[in-house]
Amino acid sequence: MGQVAFDTLQATEDLETVGMSREHARAISLIVRRSHEVADVATKADIADVKRDIADVRKDLSAEIADVRKDLSAEIADVRKDMKIQSEKVDAQFADVRKDIDTRFEKVDAQFADIRKDMNNKLEKLGLSLTIKMGGMIGFLVVSIGLMLKYLR
What we know:
This is Conserved hypothetical phage protein. It comes from Hamiltonella defensa subsp. Acyrthosiphon pisum (strain 5AT). The chain crosses the membrane at residues 126-149. By secondary structure, this protein is an all-alpha fold. It folds into 2 domains: 1-41; 43-152. Helices cover 89% and strands 0% of the residues. The longest helix has 109 residues, at 44-152. The mean pLDDT is 90.
């Protein structure tokens, strides 16, 4: 920061013209000068410098923010592409699993159809066998009853 200019000779002379002794005027002028040396007072030029610095920092920050936005937009686009690819892979895997499940269900349905055919064939054979056996038993009973009646008469 710049220093405020203080003319000690002029201050001493001004104090002497109002009737102060030379020693007193000199002492007061020196005290005021020292206080100005110690004080860190901002001048208009200092304030203008700070304003320029702030404007420069704002420009730099705006440029950096724009760069970060571009980088983020690019990264977001890349992530979206990756997610789309992964989604397509998952969809393909699900399609494969569905095909496998459908194939297995078709095999199970075919096995059930074969089992039904076998069961129907076996039941038909069993029914036929039972019919023959029942017919034989009925025939045997009829003959047996006929013979019994013949011998009993």
